[in-house]
Every structure is written in structure tokens, then in C-alpha cells.
Amino acid sequence: MTFVFPRFDEPTAIDPRRSWTATFDSYDQRNDDAYYVVSVRQDTREVTRFVAQVWLHWAGDDWTGPEFVERLRREVHAVASTGRTNTPYLGSGRDPDGTGPVVGTSPG
């Protein structure tokens, strides 16, 4: 069975006006880091997009349960709520959802 990292397509509130969504970018097995492309929206407009690094030291061996997904969501949320990346890694260069550049954007 192949493991697939979850997407976080449903907006998660940061505050009353801002929310985030995130798409899996890549996994660094050697360092046990997962990378997500985070999109932060204010009201209905995307205001920034960046890569979030999540160190999976806490995950153990079973990544299939709901506990893993919820902890991963909390870890991504901690980075997303800052509104900026926590890593020098710029991402894989893939556009995970077809809407534009992966990182370093501030539309409008």
C-alpha cells in the first residue's frame, strides 16, 4: 500500500479574515521533513504563497491514522499562521494546483 500525503484543501481559519490551504510538495526521507505549499487568503483573495517545512520526528511508523493527519494539520497551521516560510527550501518547482508560481508570490 502506497502512502499519500494529505492535501489541506478546505480553508483553515487563521483569524476572522485570513485562512490557509496547503498542498503536499515533497518529502525528504533522510531528514524526515515534509514540505507543503501554503496559500494564505485574506477574505477571498490569495495574499501569499510559500513553502512550509514540517519535521515529522513525532510521527512514528504509522502515518495512516487520523491522528497523523490532525497533527500534520496543526504543524502546517503553526507555520501558515505566521504568513511566511520557515525554510530556505523553495519547493520542488512543481505547481501543485495549476494556479501559479509555487513560492514567493504576493498577488495584486
What does this structure look like?
With 108 residues, the chain is mainly β. The chain has a domain at 9-80. It is 14% helix and 35% strand. The protein has one helix spanning 66-80, and strands at residues 8-13, 18-28, 33-42, 45-55. Strands 1-2-3-4 form a four-stranded antiparallel β-sheet. A hairpin with a 4-residue loop joins strand 2 and strand 3 (33-42). The radius of gyration is 13 Å and the shape is globular. It starts with 7 loop residues before the first strand and ends in a 28-residue tail after the last helix.
Q: List unreliable stretches of 5+ residues.
A: 103-108
Question: Can you give the helix content as a percent range?
Answer: 10-25%
Q: SS-based structural class?
A: mainly beta
The pLDDT mean sits at 87
N-to-C span: 43 Å
Write the H/E string, N to C: EEEEH
| SS element count, helices | 1
Query: How much strand?
Result: 35-45%
Please outline the major beta sheet: 4 strands, antiparallel
Strand order of the largest sheet: 1-2-3-4
What is the strand tally?
4
Assign an overall shape. Answer: globular
Radius of gyration: 13 Å
